[in-house]
Amino acid sequence: MDQSGVxxxxxxxxxxxxxxxxxRNGISEIIRxxxxxxxxxxxxxxxxxxxxxxxxxxxxxxxxxxxxxNFADVTERLAGFFLEFGAS
Length: 88
Prior knowledge:
Helix content is 69%, strand content 0%. With 88 residues, the protein is an all-alpha fold.
């Protein structure tokens, strides 16, 4: 669950609805990976397999959140970064 209380898979599904086809497909792969492994620790690994969509910076930030247990804080900071500086 993220800080808002919305499960991560649901949050990703909502994001996918608003995304272009390439990003939507990338999100679908992440959702599959999370569902197969039963946790969001698979998110960075799934993102890393899609360098055409997700930058090394994004992957590193998500991985840091997964490892540290501060996933919600990291995703909030990442979102703030993209709002301020634009998407990758």
